[in-house]
């Protein structure tokens, strides 16, 4: 599928310094793809939320309700509201996937408007 037809949806909640560090690195890598990223944050620090707002291509959306399900739904709804033909939902801490495999995953996903779901699984 064409990269310019994709919007990403994800969630964040940096609860520890280690999570904060990992999410910053991973989301910076994802941002480097140059596509919109809809992020629903679950209550990270103001500093981390400022990082999100300052990261290119990232739009921070409010969760429709507390918890992971509310975050996922909100990020997906925001992605659906864009003009993207395809939405890729991903967990935000997949740095190695973003670095090594995401471009290939998108390239090899079928360019078919009837596509329901394409799943990236671990190898």
Task: Throw out a few tags for this protein.
123 residues, alpha/beta, four-stranded parallel β-sheet, 5 helices, 4 strands, globular
Summed up, what is this model?
With 123 residues, the protein is α/β, with parallel strands linked by helices. It is built from five helices and four strands; from the N terminus they run βαβαβαβαα.
Structural class: alpha/beta
The major β-sheet equals:
4 strands, parallel
Radius of gyration, in Å, reads: 14 Å
| Beta-strand share of residues | 15-25%
Helix content bin: 40-55%
Shape: globular
Kindly report the spatial arrangement of strands forming the biggest sheet: 3-2-1-4
End-to-end separation in angstroms reads 21 Å
Q: Total number of helical segments?
A: 5
Low-confidence blocks of residues: none
The topology string of helices and strands comes to EHEHEHEHH
Mean pLDDT: 89
Q: Find the count of extended strands (DSSP E, 2+ residues).
A: 4
